[in-house]
């Protein structure tokens, strides 16, 4: 039986490995101010986090991960470049899967370095690959930045692009919006009545929105409905991008082909190529490394570039043993005007021990 002491001992070993790579150990409070996380993720985070209320401090959240508080710490008083490591409990509600632990130990490694983002990506991935190498895990990689660049390049309104970008991490909602903007879905009856103005002036207000807020929202919906549908060829190219699932060299070739007709992704694809070169220089088998353009879209919403994960092929019921990625935009959101390229990842030592015990 794997005990908490076993897990903490493995966490200490992993943390020591990251310290040997140049990381400074840091600690963050278990209770985090909820307003920051709610501002970042919206009310959806309530379904995944444990929230309590304090008369003096307002809503507090049991730490759902370490990255946000580490970024806040670095942007407040960290020097650069910087590397950090940490370990401790995180808390996630698992109402959709009660068999999964809602409290577990994470060990992480974060890099804040603007000199060479591709090299930093390769550094983090390589360290994590070495940490899990004895477990014979399946690697997965992707790049949210390519999809975001494709959305930003669509010939449509800023409001539509903003909505699609906001829902990149919710694939079903993203698909529904894309189909609606492309005119490929019939207008729902309720929406049609709203757009036609079939609302009673004396209908009671329900909820927290004022009449002015409702009127503004209706005006936005009507303005959007008046816009022409998305270009069908661009939507098809976006679908082709989302379906890229190959080893790294072949994925790069497919993305370069798509970039011919969707030039907005060209810079992001060049970044992917630079990362592949940096990974190869770190002795990663790039020719056999999987790449999925859609990978990472159901993870925490701060990833906006390179994403990776390591999974057990024998235990498909287990979540990722390790995950990570690039989150440049998060440093901008929390930096009060400052920003710095950043990439990192987390390991679950308890799952590593579980897999070792079954080997």
UniProtKB/TrEMBL annotation:
Residues 12-349 form the Aminoacyl-transfer RNA synthetases class-II family profile domain. Pfam families: tRNA-synt_His (PF13393). One of its GO terms (molecular function) is glycosyltransferase activity. Gene3D superfamilies: Bira Bifunctional Protein, Domain 2 (3.30.930.10). SUPFAM superfamilies: Class II aaRS and biotin synthetases. Homodimer. This is Histidine--tRNA ligase.
